[in-house]
Amino acid sequence: MRETCAYCGSSWNIEDEHVRARSKGGQATIPACAACNGSKGSKALMEWLRWVRENDSYRWRRIRDHHEGRRTEISQKVHRVRDEG
Q: Is there a smaller number of Cβ atoms within 10 Å at the N or the C end of the chain?
């Protein structure tokens, strides 16, 4: 089975992404596409989700749609940010 981005669901250019930035002590990784991983950088997950919602409508739609109806920890944060705006 091919890995998909934990954020937007893409299967293109998958990398290991530190949910908590390595520079901030993060060790665990999840699969993420290069576009999500690159734009997230060292931002905290909630900070990045808010940034994406405000600055990248295409990526935000992909993330929001990918997490619709899901109940993972990341999905719950996506839903929280979605409901803020």
A: N
What 3-state class would DSSP assign to 84? helix
How far apart, in whole angstroms, are the C-alpha atoms of residue 54 and residue 16?
A: 25
Global pTM value: 0.87
* 3-state per-residue secondary structure call for 19-66: CCCHHHCCCCEEEEEHHHHHHHCCCCHHHHHHHHHHHCHHHHHHHHHH
Strand partners, 30: 17
What's residue 1's pLDDT? 45
Which amino acid is residue 24, in one-letter code? K
* pLDDT value, residue 2: 64
Residue given tokens 């690159």 in the structure block: 38
